[in-house]
């Protein structure tokens, strides 16, 4: 009798659609891959099944992945990111907000742009990234067409942590933009700055270059580049530079522990009173 029960439990579920079989296969694949980085494979693209299977099935798969003690923090981040999108599709904004918080996404920004081309010389002088002078957030500087200045990004425009640069500045081709945010750390610590972008990107933490990638163009994804940076106790400044030739223009950034676990911080789009760059 016991043998019969086991045989029936292992048998395929009759009546499953091809898409439901895909989701079932992803469950088996995730369990089989263990704790390595390759465990991300069954998670990638799972939201493409959203309209083909019952949405709660996809949501349950992601919830199981998130709660799995076997997968690494970086793989779990991809499950959290997909689950955040799923929660929004299900109309659960509070749960989506909670999932985003676990990712350490930076969502409060000011942007400056569009600036001509790669903007290396002119914007380097404007932003003074090579010295300790504070950013002049009231400055008007030469842009692609007329003067441009810093402006706060409306929080409602930053969805899934993505800063839609191309929707914020015009013209949005052969141009560069900068974004700045400030984050508070309760202690001095080394962290990982993890960035996704549609093209060339650089990131500075307290004016120290942390990350630089010169890839021409790519689809935006979570954690495409990562580098180590140092957060000082108190307020820290993060600047991101993104360049576009033509097409999509956006980025997202998050801060984690070096191993991918979350770290506590608070961020804001305006400098705190009497802010001074850490030494």
Give the key terms.
single chain; 279 residues; alpha+beta; seven-stranded antiparallel sheet; three-stranded antiparallel sheet; 12 strands; 28% helix
Helices and strands, with pairings:
Elements: H1 2-10, H2 18-33, H3 55-67, H4 73-89, H5 93-103, E1 110-116, H6 120-127, E2 140-142, E3 147-149, E4 151-152, H7 165-168, E5 175-185, E6 189-197, E7 201-205, E8 208-213, E9 225-231, E10 234-244, E11 251-256, E12 266-268
Antiparallel strand pairs: 1-4, 1-5, 2-3, 5-10, 5-12, 6-9, 6-11, 7-8, 7-10
Helix pairs in contact: 3-4, 4-5
Describe the model:
It contains seven helices and twelve strands. The strands form three sheets. Strands 1, 4, 5, 7, 8, 10 and 12 form a seven-stranded antiparallel β-sheet that branches. Strands 9-6-11 form a three-stranded antiparallel β-sheet, with no helix packed on it. Strand 2 and strand 3 form a beta hairpin. Helix 3 packs antiparallel against helix 4. The termini are far apart. The N terminus is likely disordered.
Structural class of the helices, strands and pairings?
alpha+beta
Please compute the radius of gyration using only Cα atoms. 22 Å
- Uncertain stretches: 1-11, 120-125
Mean pLDDT: 89
Fraction in helix:
25-40%
The separation of the N and C termini measures: 72 Å
Discrete helix count: 7
Largest sheet: 7 strands, antiparallel
Strand content: 25-35%
Overall morphology:
globular
Task: Write the element-wise H/E pattern from the N-terminal end onward.
Answer: HHHHHEHEEEHEEEEEEEE
Task: Let me know the number of strands.
Answer: 12
């Amino acid at each position: 009798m016991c043998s019969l029960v086991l045989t029936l439990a292992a048998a395929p579920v009759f009546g499953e659609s091809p898409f439901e079989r895909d989701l079932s296969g992803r469950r088996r694949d995730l369990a089989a891959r263990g704790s390595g980085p390759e465990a991300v494979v069954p998670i990638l693209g799972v939201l493409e099944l959203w309209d083909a299977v019952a949405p709660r099935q996809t949501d349950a798969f992601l919830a199981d992945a998130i709660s799995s003690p076997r997968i690494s923090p970086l793989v779990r981040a991809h499950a959290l990111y997909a689950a955040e999108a799923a929660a929004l599709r299900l109309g659960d904004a509070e749960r989506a907000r909670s999932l985003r918080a676990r990712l350490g996404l930076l969502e409060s920004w000011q942007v400056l742009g569009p600036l001509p081309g790669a903007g290396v010389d002119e914007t380097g002088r404007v932003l003074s990234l090579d010295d300790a002078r504070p950013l002049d957030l009231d400055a008007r500087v030469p842009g692609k067409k007329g003067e441009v200045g810093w402006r706060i990004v409306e929080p409602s425009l930053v969805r899934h942590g993505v800063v839609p640069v191309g929707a914020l500045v015009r013209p949005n081709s052969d141009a560069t933009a900068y974004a700045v945010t400030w984050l508070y750390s309760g202690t001095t610590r080394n962290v990982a700055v993890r960035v996704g972008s549609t093209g060339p990107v650089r990131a500075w933490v307290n004016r120290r270059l942390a990350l630089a990638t010169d890839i021409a163009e790519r689809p935006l994804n979570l954690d495409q580049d990562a580098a180590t940076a140092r957060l000082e106790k108190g307020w820290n400044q993060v600047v991101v530079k993104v360049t576009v030739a033509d097409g999509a223009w956006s980025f997202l950034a998050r801060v984690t522990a070096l191993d991918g676990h979350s770290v506590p911080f608070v961020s804001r789009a305006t400098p705190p009173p009497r802010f001074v760059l850490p030494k």
